[in-house]
Design brief:
The protein is mainly α. 58% of the residues lie in helices and 7% in strands. The chain is built from 5 helices and 2 strands; from the N terminus they run ααββααα. Strand 1 and strand 2 form a beta hairpin. The longest helix is centred in the middle third of the chain and has 16 residues. The N terminus is likely disordered.
């Protein structure tokens, strides 16, 4: 395992960018990519994004921790309609 990859999650830069949601530290996807691009300028941006997506899938097991507020609004619109 790449020791440098482990250290990245514990850097002050990463921890300064997180918020807490349901007891889990979270950061914006764009922010994570931006910090990793800055810290690993020689890496292909597509590779960095693929790694972040792979790590997110492994962490989340496909269940979102957060969703855009519009998702709830859309669900309410559907639930407000009479059943078919």
């Amino acid at each position: 395992m790449n020791e440098k990859a482990v250290d990245v999650g514990e850097t002050p830069r990463a921890s300064d960018a997180v918020q807490m949601v349901d007891g889990v530290h979270v950061a914006s996807f764009r922010g994570v990519l931006s910090r990793l691009h800055a810290d690993y300028p020689g890496e292909d941006p597509a590779r960095i994004e693929a790694i972040v997506l792979r790590e997110w899938e492994a962490f989340s097991a496909g269940r979102p921790l957060v969703v855009p507020a519009a998702v709830e609004e859309g669900a309410r619109e559907i639930l407000d309609q009479p059943p078919v």
